[in-house]
Amino acid sequence: MLIRSWDRGDEAEWRAWLAEGRDFGLLAANGGPGEGPVLVPTHFLLDAERGEILLHLAAPNPLLAAVRADPEVTLAVTDGYAFAPGHWRGAPGTPTSYYASVHFHCTAEVVESATGKAEILNRQLAHFQPETPEVRVVPGEGELARQLPGLRGLRLTVKEVRAKFKYDDKKPAESQYAIADRLAERADGPGRGRDQYGAARAQLLRRHQRRTAGPRTAAVLPDDSPRSDLSRSARPRADRPSATG
Question: CB–CB of 206/213 below 8 Å?
Answer without folding.
Answer: no
